[in-house]
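A.,

Following up on our hallway conversation. Structure tokens first:
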């Protein structure tokens, strides 16, 4: 049977689980509590952690919560002869690409430590997490089955039982592990060195590593940089999620104000425009970009931190608001076009009367001029990026439709956008030029009759 680095206790592998035992009153209380909760399982360990490199581990501790730190900073606090390492064969690929492990650790990074979280069934931002939950949850995200119970109910004794030489796991003494300063390196002629050399060359081929960059000191510096990146990433993504929740709250409040309009309100163009003014600066390019973000880009994105775990729910809310926005804009455009068409009919009737030399009062002409001017006001949202970009957008629409849609809702909202764009185009190409010419003619007629 061909041996790999997985088979050598000495070699440190990302994804290894450290089952640690400490002494003292708190440690004794920890084990007593575990035995109380799991009377059929041995409580041999007080802490569990994940190895992520030859220098650093990730764990959850009281006060600090989930963090990444050098193993040398805490190694002295445990009874090494009583500690164990657990390794799963399914995680061997992390030797070449530890990114999946680091992403899973990043997801829970900076979550606070809280024993109360053991009563929860799902992890939630700022709800707390303990060491065994953290390890079980990360392993679960990596595709390794959780203990027989829920990952959120995991204790160190559950991690021990899960990894006890079954289901692809094997355990071995920590004292034979490369992180232990007293561990014995394989002899010079041992197969380990040939296997390690082959592994390093494969790493160079796959990742372009330099052998000189694989020293522990260099790796330690790289891990320090990684920790700084994790801290910054968690902070930025948490703040972005908080900002997004605030935006959603405000948007929902605004939409709650814009109640369904009655027929009388729809007929009152001025009131309708004022009520929906917050929507009237949106161009079709803006709406198409938002459609892409909500229906193409974001649905394929997965939350990178626990603080952003509600992203799918927020996405659904954003999509609902987008649907309402498009519906309101279509209503606005429909009302404006309908009013412009009605005005055009009235203007034609007035022109016929004038052509027949019928008596037409200056008051009627002034009123018609005022109505035409009103219809031309607040029309920027109808004209913004409409006429000049419509050919380009038409090609884009056709390309998107030919490319296929991922859902009926995605397709339906694209159709709604196209219909809105056509309404805007009709305003720009037909109604607005006609209204301008008609109001200018009415202004001239009013002036000729001595109107204001």
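Then the amino acids I'd put at each of the 452 positions:
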């Amino acid at each position: 049977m061909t041996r790999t680095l997985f088979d050598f206790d000495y070699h440190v592998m990302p994804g290894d689980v450290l089952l640690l035992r400490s002494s003292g009153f708190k440690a004794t209380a920890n084990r007593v509590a575990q035995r109380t909760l799991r009377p059929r399982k041995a409580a041999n360990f007080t802490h569990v952690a994940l190895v992520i490199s030859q220098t650093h581990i990730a764990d959850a501790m009281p006060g600090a919560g989930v963090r990444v730190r050098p193993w040398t900073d805490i190694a002295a606090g445990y009874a090494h002869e009583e500690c164990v390492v657990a390794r799963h064969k399914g995680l061997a690929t992390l030797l070449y690409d530890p990114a999946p492990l680091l992403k899973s650790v990043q997801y829970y990074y900076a979550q606070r430590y809280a024993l109360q979280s053991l009563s929860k069934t799902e992890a939630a931002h700022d709800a707390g997490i303990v060491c065994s939950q953290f390890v079980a949850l990360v392993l679960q995200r990596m595709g390794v089955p959780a203990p027989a119970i829920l990952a959120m109910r995991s204790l160190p004794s559950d991690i021990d039982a899960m990894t006890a030489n079954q289901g692809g796991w094997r355990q071995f003494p920590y004292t034979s592990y490369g992180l232990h300063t007293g561990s014995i390196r394989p002899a010079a002629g041992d197969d380990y060195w040939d296997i390690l050399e082959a592994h390093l060359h494969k790493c160079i081929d796959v990742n372009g590593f330099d052998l000189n960059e694989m020293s522990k000191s260099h790796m330690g510096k790289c891990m320090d940089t990684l920790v700084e990146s994790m801290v910054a990433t968690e902070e930025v993504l948490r703040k972005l999620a908080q900002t997004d929740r605030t935006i959603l709250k405000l948007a929902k409040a605004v939409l709650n104000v814009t109640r369904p309009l009655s027929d009388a309100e729809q007929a009152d163009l001025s009131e309708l425009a004022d009520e929906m003014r917050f929507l009237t600066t949106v161009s079709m390019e803006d709406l198409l970009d938002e459609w892409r973000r909500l229906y193409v880009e974001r649905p394929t994105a997965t939350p990178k931190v626990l603080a952003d775990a509600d992203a799918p729910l927020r996405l659904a809310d954003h999509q609902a608001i987008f649907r309402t926005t498009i519906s309101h804009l279509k209503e606005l455009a429909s009302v404006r076009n309908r009013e412009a068409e009605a005005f055009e009919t009235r203007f034609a009737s007035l022109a016929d009367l004038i052509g027949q030399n019928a008596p037409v009062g200056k008051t009627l002409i002034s009123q018609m001029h005022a109505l035409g001017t009103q219809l031309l006001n607040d029309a920027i949202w109808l004209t913004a990026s409409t006429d000049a970009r419509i050919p380009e957008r038409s090609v884009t629409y056709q390309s998107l439709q030919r490319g296929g849609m991922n859902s009926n809702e995605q397709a339906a909202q694209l159709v709604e956008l196209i219909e809105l764009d056509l309404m805007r185009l009709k305003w720009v190409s037909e109604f607005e030029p006609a209204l301008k010419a008609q109001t200018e003619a009415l202004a001239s007629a009013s002036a000729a009759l001595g109107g204001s």
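Residues 311-355 form the longest helix (45 residues). Curious whether your intuition agrees with the design.

B.
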